[in-house]
Amino acid sequence: xxxxxxxxxxxxxxxxxxxxxxxxxxxxxxxxxxxxxxxxxxxx
Length: 44
Fold this sequence. Notes:
mainly alpha; 44 residues
């Protein structure tokens, strides 16, 4: 998702809203992604 939004190509209105939300919260999203990966590793 981050790679797609970084391209700068024209997007639909819902995609633009999601891109703005992603840009505003990218640090928290990345932390949540890493936490999910760690949880999965610990469960295995």
